[in-house]
Amino acid sequence: MIDLSTASDRILAERSADGDTNAFSVLVRRHAPYLRAFAHRLTGSAADADDAVQEALISAWKQLPTLQDPSKVRSWLTSIVSRKATDRIRSRRPTGELDDELVAEHGSGPEERAIETSRMEALTRILDELPEGQRQCWVLKEVGGYSYDEIAERLDLSVTTVRGKLARARQTVVREMEVWR
């Protein structure tokens, strides 16, 4: 068995695309902690984060042969996790027990919760309609709290490009969310 722990992401992604499960295991071990933390920041739930990452990795395994640039496997995996986490958020059904805790915690009544839920649904729709690059930059900055440099590194973009994408994303979000003020 070949030790692939020091191989580049590019080599691991290429080997994985050819069906090498050992290479894929190394990719998963290398990137799963980051992907899980990213999903947790998006969903606010460890369980949902775990599920989103698991679904994303299953999807990635199936789609690896279609990956255009194997050296960008981390940003590609991040975008899949982002979509899966968004799907998890959308599919959430509030339970009475959790709703009671939220009311006690925040002191908000049904009307306030309904307004907040509508706002979150509107934001989710707006983010879904953004171009992929803008959405990734917005989520990493606004939800993840990453710096421009960190986003540029994670998405393999220049800082200037990140700033531009983020500015356009913010303009769209602000414009579309004006209805909810």
Instruction: List segments where confidence is low: pLDDT < 50 over at least 5 consecutive residues.
Output: 95-104
In whole angstroms, how far apart are the ends?
A: 60 Å
Global morphology: globular
Mean pLDDT: 82
CA-atom Rg in angstroms: 18 Å
Q: Say how many strands there are.
A: 0
What is the element string, with H for helices and E for strands?
HHHHHHHHH
- Please summarize the sheet with the most strands: none
Structural class: mainly alpha
Classify the beta-strand content into a percent band.
Answer: under 5%
Count of helical regions:
9
Helix content: over 70%
Tell me what the structure shows:
The protein is mainly alpha-helical. Helices cover 77% and strands 0% of the residues. Helix 2 crosses helix 4 (73-91). The radius of gyration is 18 Å and the shape is globular. The termini are far apart.
